[in-house]
Specification:
The complex is a heterodimer of chains A (about 150) and B (about 400).
Chain A: H1 2-24, E1 36-40, E2 48-49, H2 51-58, E3 72-75, H3 81-91, H4 95-108, E4 115-116, H5 120-129, E5 133-138, E6 147-151
Parallel strand pairs in A: 2-6, 3-4, 3-5
Antiparallel strand pairs in A: 1-5, 1-6
Chain B: H1 2-13, H2 17-31, E1 41-54, E2 71-82, E3 85-95, E4 101-116, E5 121-131, H3 162-166, E6 167-178, E7 182-193, H4 197-203, E8 210-226, E9 231-246, E10 255-269, E11 273-284, E12 286-288, E13 291-293, E14 298-308, E15 313-323, H5 332-338, E16 346-356, E17 362-372, E18 391-402
Antiparallel strand pairs in B: 1-2, 1-18, 2-3, 3-4, 4-5, 5-6, 6-7, 7-8, 8-9, 9-10, 10-11, 11-14, 12-13, 14-15, 15-16, 16-17, 17-18
The chains are: A alpha/beta (about 150), B mainly beta (about 400).
Chain lengths: ~150, ~400
């Protein structure tokens, strides 16, 4: 019975520590979401995208553009600040929710994870060089080799 | 290769839908207007090794003196032919007890075809060995990185009828409807259940030298997630119609075992905290004409909290309960009828753990679990039920790598 009470005590401490952390920890992202844009390869015809379609694409649930062209998704690493700002700000998902969903797709065979790139420069060249691709980059990295999609 | 794999099933069951699905897929393959630019074959895998130490009772071999029988390996391949057609397969090997001692099994191997109907509806189908859709965790229950703790919640994802729960050989269809408020997903499947010798022993004890000859399984899951994934709900139902025959002079005659499994799942997720709960009813009846036997369903549930301190560290806790008969929670009736200890008819536990994930590839988990009751113990590890103890503890550590 002693050990039984012991584990309840630990659970209580964990709950308490959660409340303490949750209320104290609201670090602002170092990159503002307003500075991040959704970019695609220049062959994509549409100029805007609605949020639920955008979410479905980055969740890897939608495999093709309206004209049937395969979607190729590029993302930065989970711990990259731009990725975190994009995930929370533009998609409205926490990065762990994206990862958890991709893991489920990969290990249940029902889909795959997006292609990971190591830097914003690599993201830029990957999206510019891959037909049907989509990614995201900070505003000041955008040039004529990329097409910017407005999120509606 | 795929035709060879599917054809034995179609022959024995004389189904018409599998070949037609196959023809449909072949046609769609040829008609794709876009060729994929690069080789779209992905290979992923994982390896997990745990150590478990228990007081009193045994799980995973001789865990009362520390057991390393907590090894899981998996390798999967997925190839996208067109945006609509994908072929995926995964092989798994587990060392967890005497029964599953490293045998390599085919977890799934299926072809998936999906087609967007319009901007908000997508329909799809799968054929081959498909994962059964049960609750939030069944499809990836052997992959440490997708579990909330060292094991998937034992009260629902137990090994008693593991193969029956895991995957089945057949076809499935799904429909996904996206709206601004959320996503609704309906999955339906039908096929032939996987029953290995361990499940067979669990269902019709080893004294009955029986053999299953009908193993039909049907499954359905309806899921809804709010568009920001803050709330997720799922209702799963699996029914299996199992028929077995016995040897001419055996004590038990041939019979039928209808299995009905229902799971309700709910989850709330915020930036730092995830709260998950699932409730299960598992009804396994035994029908031996002319005597129908109705057995009370096994009921179980858990509630679990995960706290993501940062991207490296998280802590978690879970409370679980399982009852062979929810009207006999203390097992007293069970004990009177069977003569077995009352505590073997239920299990109630608390678990706390910590997870450290220093990189994408590596993860280390450590947890302690305090358990009352022995309903989840296997007879293999604990041959004498009278030697089991009502109150016991488990401490385990697991290291997992994936690529």
């Amino acid at each position: 019975m002693l050990t039984r009470n012991y584990s309840k005590l630990i659970f209580g401490i964990l709950l308490l520590s959660y409340v303490t952390f949750a209320t104290s920890k609201t670090a602002p992202p170092s990159i503002e979401q307003s500075e991040i844009r959704i970019v695609t390869h220049t062959d994509i015809q549409q100029s805007s995208i609605d949020k639920s379609t955008l979410r479905a694409i980055f969740f890897m649930h939608l495999q093709e553009w309206p004209n049937g062209e395969p979607v190729k998704v590029f993302v930065l690493r989970d711990r990259n600040k731009t990725h975190q700002a994009f995930s929370k700000g533009l998609l409205g998902f926490f990065p762990y929710q994206l990862r958890r969903n991709w893991d489920k797709l990969v290990f249940s065979g029902t889909g795959e994870a997006p292609e990971e790139v190591k830097s914003i420069d690599k993201m830029k060249s990957a999206v510019a060089g891959t037909p049907g691709s989509i990614g995201y980059i900070p505003l000041n990295f955008i040039d004529e080799n990329l097409k910017v999609l407005e999120v509606k | 290769m795929l035709t060879n794999y599917i054809s034995p099933y179609t022959k024995t069951n004389k189904s018409v839908y599998l070949p037609s699905v196959f023809v449909f897929i072949s046609l769609s393959l040829m008609n794709s207007p876009f060729a994929l630019a690069e080789n779209e074959t992905k290979i992923n895998g994982f390896i997990s090794q745990g150590i478990i130490y228990t007081s009193e009772n045994k799980i995973n071999g001789d865990s009362d003196s520390g057991s390393f029988k907590l090894t899981e390996l998996g390798l999967n391949m997925s190839k996208r032919f067109t945006p609509r057609v994908r072929l995926s397969g995964q092989a798994i090997s587990r060392i967890v007890d005497q029964e599953s001692d490293g045998d390599i099994t085919l977890d799934y191997l299926f072809i998936d075809y999906k087609v967007p109907i319009n901007s908000s509806i997508q329909l799809g189908g799968r054929a081959g060995r498909i994962k059964n859709v049960i609750g939030f965790y069944n499809e990836t229950r052997d992959v440490a990185f997708t579990r909330p703790s060292i094991s998937a919640p034992e009260s629902i994802y137990f090994d008693f009828v593991r193969d029956l729960q895991l995957s089945s050989d057949g076809v499935a269809g799904y429909a996904e409807w996206r709206s601004i408020s959320g996503t609704l997903l309906l999955e339906l499947g039908s096929g032939k259940a996987r029953i290995n010798s361990e499940t067979e022993v669990s269902l019709i004890s080893e004294t009955v030298n029986g053999k299953f000859y009908k193993e039909d399984i049907e499954q359905a899951r309806l899921s809804y997630a709010l568009s920001d994934q803050s709330w997720r709900f799922a209702l799963s139902k699996i029914t299996a119609d199992l028929k077995y025959k016995t040897e001419p002079l055996s004590f038990f005659g041939a019979g039928e075992i209808p299995v009905d499994l229902r799971v309700l799942s709910v989850e709330y997720a915020s930036e730092l905290f995830v709260l998950t709960s699932e409730y299960m009813l598992l009804d396994i009846d035994y029908v031996q004409p002319p005597l129908p036997a109705r057995i009370q369903p096994i009921s179980s549930w858990f509630i679990q909290g995960q706290y993501h301190h940062n991207s490296n560290w998280s802590i978690y806790s879970r409370h679980e309960q399982l009852y062979f008969n929810k009207n006999d929670r203390d097992g007293s009736q069970f004990s009177q009828v069977t003569g077995l200890p009352a505590h073997s008819a239920f299990s109630s536990s608390w678990l706390v753990g910590v997870k450290w994930q220093p990189s994408y590839n590596w993860m280390l988990l450590a947890e302690i679990r305090n358990i009352e009751g022995t309903a989840e113990l296997s007879r293999d590890n604990n041959p004498n039920p009278f030697e089991t103890k009502k109150y016991w503890q488990a401490v385990s550590v697991m290291l997992s790598y994936r690529f």
